Amino acid sequence: MSINLKIPDIRELKPRITVFGVGGAGGNAVNNMIRAGLQGVDFVVANTDAQALTMSEAERIIQMGVQATEGLGAGSQPDVGRAAAEEVIDEIRDHLTGAHMVFVTAGMGGGTGTGASPVVARAARELGILTVGVVTKPFHFEGQRRMRLAENGISELQKVVDTLIIIPNQNLFRIANEKTTFADAFAMADQVLYSGVGCITDLMVKEGLINLDFADVRAVMREMGKAMMGTGEATGEKRALRAAEAAIANPLIDDVSMKGARGLLISITGGKDLTLYEVDEAATRIREEVDSDANIIVGATFDESLEGVIRVSVVATGVDPAMIGANQQIAPVPAVEAFTARTPDTQAAAAHESRIADLANRLRADNKRIADRIEQSAPSSAERAAVQPLIPAEPAAPTSIDAVAAAAVADALIPREIEDVTIRPIQQPKAPFYPDAMAQEAPVESHEAPPKVFIPPQPERPASRPARMPRIDELPLPAQNELRAQRGEPAGDEHPEKRRLSLLQRLAAVGLGRSAEE
Prior knowledge:
Blueprint: E1 17-22, H1 23-35, E2 41-47, H2 50-54, E3 60-63, H3 78-87, H4 89-96, E4 101-107, H5 112-126, E5 130-137, H6 144-158, E6 163-168, H7 182-205, E7 208-210, H8 214-221, E8 225-235, H9 239-248, E9 256-257, E10 263-270, H10 276-287, E11 295-302, E12 309-317, E13 320-321, H11 346-377, H12 381-386, H13 401-413, E14 416-418, E15 421-423, H14 477-487, H15 503-512
Helix pairs in contact: 1-5, 1-7, 3-5, 4-5, 5-6, 9-10
């Protein structure tokens, strides 16, 4: 038995980078990167939807949740996506083994990407792999529920990645117009991932003036929290400056600013005509946006396909949430070719780049106008010095009215001279201006009895007649006959013979209100 020991070839000792697409959005991002021709990267796609995996162009795919979902998807339930990833965690680790850096890309808000991407990132971190998350947030028209799921998924993912880049889909409206197709809009979002991965691989693989090793990249991106990426291209005069400013003003990245960034990776790529002055100009412009204590790593490489073109890529890590360009002071510049890969359809790409640059310039101009307006409205140092706190004066001693009146009279009695004429007031007593309040007569105490209170007399009431028993003749005739029978008296006739009354009798009966009488 013999043991053969072979020293690995130096060309094989290079960093291995893996792009791991999770869910439908992650798979689409991987497909766009493969079609764009990105080299030097391993692609892996994992999904719970078996139909989506059949359309993947990646050579390495993982079917998650065969038992949990039966290949039918997670149904916008992150718990199902998380369980599906845990089901194949050993297979995920096998695809991650040997990688030095992994980009986990997914769309937040659904089931598979939201639930499974933290599981994949956690597995990569446990293997000691530098892990970078690149995720998208839903459009506003997708509803609040999906946005809440996305925010929760981002919070979980941020705990298990070294660096996280967030791309809100709503920001696509900043660079799209009414003619932009849905597929083209998402391709623009995937371009952020393509640019970030491409600039890192170019710095470590391609020939250049200033090459970087993987340790430099790891120093900038290890445990740095949120990050931003941007890429810009320009040609002609001041191409280095214009490309650098286009890379800084990435309209698709979440609302973060490079101010306060703790790490900065700058990649400058050009043809053989790239000059040292242009490298210095681009790097200096970007360095002005971050603190002086930031860890800045600059690399410059050559690409023969970029003859006459300069490309600047920026990866800023450890940034704080803020509005893009809130602290930038960038003068408006002409349109530049920015944020695109070199594809055969360069004319359409150039049109998109021009719109992106125009929008970035407008945003910078608006921010500058707002900053100037705030500076003008703020009080100057001289005005602040002139404004002194008001100190209350000491209260004057109280003066009586009599003293004021006496002083006025004394001043009037002073003789005055006008040329050779002396004017003296007539000496006659005058009534004081204000009578003395103490000189008023005191109220005289009265000994008269107080008036009596009038009580009205009670009104007289008519005397009430005493109650009496009714007479027999006042009772009805049957009652009268019964009483008379008890007394032994003859009963009266119930139907007495009536005779015609005279006119006077009838009138009398009507006036008295009584019935006809005998």
